[in-house]
């Protein structure tokens, strides 16, 4: 499904602002864990944002992701404080794990083993 120019612009704004929020808050919530926003998809009415997260190190990935799910309301409130003057309604957030980095590492390992 093709996203409109408006959706793409809003998704970029959300990615940038959520990335900054997670950079600040993850340092307080978690020690030695890095959380980044890799991609955001927004519904046509801008009411729902699918946020794809990359979490490093891999060993703590699921535990950290579940904790972030529990803190979703806090993330949304922090986002609202930052973008409240740019948008009327703050979208609901759906968090997903982005495992593309792990998949590419797995493919790299497979290719290296062929040599």
Can you put this structure into words, describing what you see?
The structure is a single chain. Helix 1 (5-29) crosses helix 3 (72-83). This protein has 115 residues and is an alpha+beta fold. The model has no long low-confidence stretch (mean pLDDT 90). The chain has a single domain, classed as GMP Synthetase, Chain A, domain 3 (2-Layer Sandwich). Helix content is 54%, strand content 21%. The chain is built from 4 helices and 3 strands, in the order H-E-E-H-H-E-H. Strands 1-2-3 form a 3-stranded mixed beta sheet.
Pattern of helices and strands: HEEHHEH
Q: Judging by the overall fold, what is the CATH architecture?
A: 2-Layer Sandwich
User: For the CA atoms, what is the radius of gyration?
Assistant: 16 Å
Strand content: 15-25%
So what's the overall shape? globular
Number of helices: 4
Ends apart, CA distance between termini = 39 Å
Nearest-integer average pLDDT: 90
Class per helix and strand makeup: alpha+beta
CATH class descriptor name: Alpha Beta
Strand order within the widest sheet?
1-2-3
Largest sheet: 3 strands, mixed
Q: Return the CATH topology.
A: GMP Synthetase, Chain A, domain 3
């Amino acid at each position: 499904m093709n996203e409109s120019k408006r959706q793409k612009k809003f998704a970029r704004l959300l990615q940038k602002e959520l990335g900054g929020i997670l950079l600040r808050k993850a340092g307080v919530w978690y020690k030695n864990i890095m959380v980044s926003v890799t991609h955001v998809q927004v519904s046509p009415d801008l009411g729902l944002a699918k946020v794809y997260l990359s979490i490093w190190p891999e060993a703590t990935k699921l535990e950290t992701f579940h904790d972030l799910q529990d803190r979703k309301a806090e993330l949304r409130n922090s986002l609202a404080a930052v973008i409240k003057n740019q948008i009327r309604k703050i979208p609901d957030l759906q968090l997903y794990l982005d495992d593309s980095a792990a998949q590419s590492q797995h493919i790299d390992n497979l290719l290296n083993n062929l040599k």
